[in-house]
Amino acid sequence: MNREPILIMAELIINKMQLSKERVSVYNQNFKPPKDKNLFVVLRQDTSTIFSSSTELVTVGDNTPEWDLTRTYYKGTIVKYVVDGLFYQCLNNDVTSTPDTIADWATITDYELQSINALETYTINIASRNDDARKRKEEIIFSLLSNDAADAQELNHFKISSLPTSFLNISEVEGSTMLNRFAITINILAWYRLTNASPSYYDTFSNAINFSQ
What we know:
This protein is an alpha+beta fold. The chain has helices at 5-16, 132-136, 138-144, 147-156; strands at residues 24-26, 40-59, 79-83, 86-90, 110-128, 158-160, 166-169, 172-174, 177-196. The protein has two domains: 5-52 and 115-196, Phage tail protein-like (STM4215-like, 2-Layer Sandwich), CATH 3.30.2000.10; 61-108. The radius of gyration is 23 Å and the shape is elongated.
């Protein structure tokens, strides 16, 4: 993935619900709810269950796309580039356009590619001391099902469930006012990968293993 799902969802909610960045937060111990009556949103990751993983050795030229001037390449993208018959590889760099010089590229013979698929659970809390949270709670779902959300999922290799697993009213009395608060729990399928340009082999390990009977 190019970005964390929780940050992408926060950005979608900000844009679709037309909220300021101060009104949408990722949960942390230092978060303090606004003192006014207006709407605010807090996102939190609850669980992550890894259901598949893999490690493979990939040789340059195997299943790596040629450089395409019409595309934008993000961190982690692996792209093949050929100059005078030599393979060059862009690996784990922030690249947004064609490199100006060959110095921007590294010659790579092969690399280790590790990947993980996970089922993640997130809770999105929407709250206010007026009626906004109750009236606008469904807009959280609309934000995550929008065309912008579909584009973000395709670009960042993850999938947001179309239906929440729960939608709970957890409103409570807070001081002399009533805090309208709703907790929306959703599932996400996420894919993570890590590339290592210099994988080690068994015959290059520095420490020997001695077996005794």
